Protein 1
Amino acid sequence: MAFLVFEGIDGSGKSTLIDLFCNKLNEHKLPFIKTKEPGGTKIGKKIRRLLLEKTNTKLSPMTETLLYYADRKQNIEEVIKPNLKKNITVISDRYWASTSAYQYGGRKISENFITALRHQICKDYEPDLWILLDIPIEITLKRLFISKANKRDRMEMENSSFHQKVRDYYLSLAKKNPEKWLILKGEKKSSILLEELISHLKSKKILF
Ligand code: TYD
């Protein structure tokens, strides 16, 4: 059993890798549950809509931060906590590092405020491993334009310097704690990334 979290900027290829990884867990008959933030629960889906709706231009950065944490608390209570308790592996598409990277790294919301929320809400649920899909923003912006065109959400509409700050913050977080973070190069083929991930988990004796 393990708690694994995938992180990365928008368009980094997280979802594709998560799907491949979940297929692998199925092949090995390893019990797991997949969740995501924001929107891993029924209540979380409603919060997600508030957060990502493009017309919500008046959402203040502090409200935004609190909503991401409200969604997270619900995800912990409904998904993360009960499944880990039953020895079921939890795979999460984003967790607290997203708020640190986007709302602190990108928006410059007070670090103390975000750290206090993290301690209050996440302290008993720390991932065994964070997987960062790191990729140059020029590539992700191109991907987003091709795949989403006018359908980009409120966060994806941010400019490239915002996404660059988010990427830089993720990298600094991962480099500060190399034991807990695996950095993968998102521009590689997803089958290669899957191999790299599995071999890292084997070397750490996590799951495999
Ligand atoms: P995500 O669901 O990964 O995007 P997509 O639907 O394109 O796969 O994430 C939604 C957006 O929310 C993404 O731009 C990152 C942002 N986000 C934050 O800004 N802070 C957070 O704490 C989280 C969890 C996500």
Protein 2
Amino acid sequence: FDQQPLAFAYAALEPSIDTITMDIHYNKHAAAYSKNVKEAAIAEKVDMTKPLEDVLYKISAYSTKMRNNAGGHYNHELFWKCLTPTTNLPTGKLLAAIEKDFGSLDALQKQVTEAAKNRFGSGWAWLIVTGDKKLIVSSTPNQDNPLMDIAETKGFPLFGLDVWEHAYYLKYQNRRADYIENFWKVLNWNYVNERFNSL
Ligand code: MN
């Protein structure tokens, strides 16, 4: 429920993600989700010593405030860990699964790019692992995510791409496609590998 420290400096992802966007995104937008999910947890008697995921799995039982902020907090904590100044690539079991389920890394990137470009308004594009261990691309509106019982497509998120305007507007304005293209340069595949190998 608490924000974890960023593993890199605000300027570290330049020029793909600019310093001011990182600062405001982490310290204002994401900080608010963390503050508000804790408020909702107190109001709705959620045990904050238990994993946030327990709330997400049953999110339909909680308020809209909980849905928006539990999702917002989880999604951003994941997003920061999926970013890195040091470009790297999927390897091992993850690369093999990508090649099996998409044909190639390039084909996977095209699907995520399309999902991210086509998300109308605010939301996220995801690479998820389904219950039958298949890798698929999905997208959610607002701060929903694939762990939630209300998600159209459910699964374990390996990485998420934030396509809210607050994630890119200062640098890219209306050019969401350019932001998405540059996201690939700062995606931390090493961490995505770790999440996949943890399953
Ligand atoms: Mn965001």
Protein 3
Amino acid sequence: MKILVLNAGSSSHKACLFDLSRLAESNQTPNSIWRAALDWTHAEGMVELTATNQEGGKIKAALPITDRAEGIAAMLETLVQGQTQVLRALSEIDVVGHRVVHGGREYVDSVRVNDEVKDAIRRLIPLAPVHNPANLHGLETMERILGHIPQVAVFDTAFHARMAEAASTYPGPYEWLEKGIRRYGFHGISHQYVAQRAAVMMGRDIASLRILTCHLGNGCSLAAVKDGISIDTTMGFTPLDGLMMGSRSGSVDPGILIYLMRQEGYGVDALDTLLNKASGLKGISGISNDMRLVVEAMEAGHKQATLAIDMFIHRLRQEMGAMMASLGGLDAIVFTAGIGENSPLVWQRACHPFEFLGVKLREDELGRAKDDQDIAAADSAVRVLVIHTQEEWAIAQACLSILQPVA
Ligand code: ADP
């Protein structure tokens, strides 16, 4: 089976192709046989197309295209011709899996796309005004290019959709619930994948584990995964809630927003930009949203960079503690995504305060590794795992289980 995975955003499109017939030989999480991306921010009136295949073929080109559908079509052409060709015809693709950001309360699982699903994604646009339109457009464009092949929507919110009301309701007026103003949570595809992978690495059944998953990338969120279900998470109604992030503030006193509106005349768009683009590591350090650059500046003695890192860690620990309280115990902590997979400094500083619970890291020098690794000491009461998130593979697996359900 050949599964195409599409992650359609507002400023980029990323796609990859898995060939399951080539998987049988290895038990490893598979590499895709082709991947491609469109960067719409490259230059005015242009899109940058990059593609690679498993044999080392590469394409990089700036194309005079502004129409998103035309760009997607050009990207798919690299599957069937030129340096990166891996298929004879697009008709060889069996199914397309889409990352869809918002599935509201309705979708607790991935689903095969039909008109009803498309209507739901459209109806949920007010909750994800940037992402859901791009996701819907991706679905419809694939339909036009590939005809009526099966398509599967894999929602970033679905894994959190079983959270209890006490965890998902904001303490505003009760009417908020009726209006759909509640905690949805995001990064669900990643949290679910790494929690399942953690259970495999521990040789345990996920149905009896309490796992704290830390997705720390440009966007950062934690999830409390009990018996395989997300029972709490730090992102909320939007991806702005919770931890301090690259350029997002995370939770702030909502009174600050009222103050800024009243005293400084802030409007909706200015607040949106302030909290999403000019806050977090970038806002405090004044240097960058990129953790590597902020750490470099800290090491060179930069005061604001040092404060930014100290705050990032402080807030991470606070929220880790909150998730542990929701879990009522802890078997494993998982770190994943750009920062979580690569930063020994974050592992060490994040785990340090939990030594009193028996969380103990290995004493040898910890470092980044190609493979998933257990960084806890042998006698640690809690496993601490660094797992490379594989959202695309998780989407491909969702397609497989919908098309070929295990009896
Ligand atoms: P996204 O959320 O956009 O998918 P990523 O998961 O790629 O982002 O994470 C991006 C973040 O990971 C950036 O802040 C980057 O600095 C950080 N990162 C990547 N490599 C390292 C590293 N070696 N050490 C520390 N941080 C890193």
Protein 4
Amino acid sequence: MSDSDETKKKAEPRKKTIDPAALEMLGRAEAAGIGTVFSRVDEMKPCPIGASGSCCQLCAMGPCRLVGKGAAEKTGICGATHATIGARYMTRAIAGGVAAHSDHGRDIARTLLAVAKGHAGSYQVKDTDKLYRVAAIMHIATEGRDVNDVAAEVAQRALDNFNGTAGDELSYVSRAPAKRQAIWRKYGLVPRGVDREVVESMHRTNVGVDQDAEHLLDQGMRTSLADGWGGAMLATDLSDILFGTPKPLVSQANLGVLKKDEVNIIVHGHEPTLSEMIVAAAQDPELVEYAKSKGAAGINLAGICCTANEVLMRHGIPPAGNFLHQELAIITGAVEGMIVDVQCVLQALSPLAQKFHTKLITTSPKAKIPGATHLEFDETRALETAKEIVRMCIDNFQNRGDVAIPDYTGDLVAGFSHEYINYMLGGRYRASFRPLNDNIINGRIQGAVAIVGCNNPRVTQDEGIVYLVHELIKRDILVVQTGCAAHASGKHGLLTPETMQIAGDGLREVCEAVGMPPVLHLGSCVDNSRIMTILSQVVEEGGLGDDISDLPVAAICPEYYCEKALAIGTYAAASGVFVVFGVRNPVADCTEVVDIMSNGWEQKVGGQLVFEPDYEKILEMVTGRIQAKRQALGIHEEKERVLFDMAARREL
Ligand code: NFS
């Protein structure tokens, strides 16, 4: 590199985000000399040894670093190879992610049990139809029984699934296509209990226990399946039972949803239990009056991260942004209170909130943050606690200083539960996935890709997500989204029906006929389980093979940062989906592990988990996969395009 190249490189700092609202707030932070996750990431170089899977920290003989000449052949002090170290890393990361989602699910099950027993008066069973459907899957009798009786038994069965006392297989394994279940049984991948698989993973990754990479990674898959077809799927279903099954609604996303003249409260984290009550409290006429008495025009609620998705899907509460927006929201100076529970909450929020007037309020008995106000939430006095918190935020309105809210929002439609998609496609009297299958078979829709997961400040915020959404829908590939990736599309206006204008002709015709956007927001990260349900139903509908691995589908997690994402990616792969992660490969040096998770899993379970930071290559990989699957199904031939006429529309 010449000197001038060197200067040029220095003069052009890495692009941090493509979101204009984020850029505006980063400017404000810089002017005030305030650090954010975006600036700290530049100051902290990742350790190259750990970043690529060459460091083992599992015992006090080490840490062992397998680097230098002949690194590939080196072992740790105990003799562990790169393969063992990488497989242990992945399995532990998966167990960590599963533990998070499943503990969330367990709490919802406990709440449902409390409701059924009359101990949680602020809540009730909102969707009895869904309760009965879940009961049927669990083989729980419903006829002639009281709703709360059924709810109690469903909740108890869910808890048994966590505890591992529900039998030899989790209740929801039966929801997968028969062929998929057979594959899981053949390789011993059927999860037996959520806690049991997490504990067994932690046990087997101890030094001196399981040392065979493939065997370890099988346990990684089994543990992940306890999430996708266990903890997370239960979290989704029981949340729908308690808080309602989502239906499409309109909203907006980005920091512009904050209001200058109102008390702004942000709910951030993951569990819907408290945020549901905050939604109720923020609409309480007495509290709205109280806010007015303090000089505010009202109470404005917004969300960050997956709590945002939960309250967006069910109430249309606008998300103020995704993972990397949590600090930026506070930097607007307009947030009276940020109420957090568990997961994805940056510790840096606490010192940052102290620089502004924002009250950071922790609420979960599981998570305290030094410097934050802790107001513990329990379901027996949920609404009272929520009101107390809202009142605290209102009282804080008068302490506001200088406010700068970036004037950017994206319109969006969210709330596509699998039940609604079924209904939307087939209509009230014959809800079915048939039209979707037919349009995949006739080629109007080439396939479907899930773009999910986090933000990671190591890459340009939202860039890969927005690029991939555009490129895929242009190629007639339907996109479904969850988590912070869905917020990215929401902020950039991609979750609206108008987006069909940039879709390919075939996809656009179907979207026009059904009246749906080509990019569907399916919810939070635990709601990735909805995608598993949809895939199973599409297989069941017929015409596209007899297993999930036959379908022309793929999943991408362009900006992953955490263990939960790895857990989700693994259960998708173990369910037969081709999965690509961006950012970097955490086990790149462990070539045997990389090979097992790609070629090995392809042969064993028909899915793969691969890492590829280059978005163009990701696009090539997933479109190549979709075409290969179409070819295998014999539906790849370009048919003469027949435009939708009135009869075809009516048929749809
Ligand atoms: Ni998923 Fe949701 Fe966002 Fe990533 Fe965090 S909020 S559970 S982990 S960062 S998508």
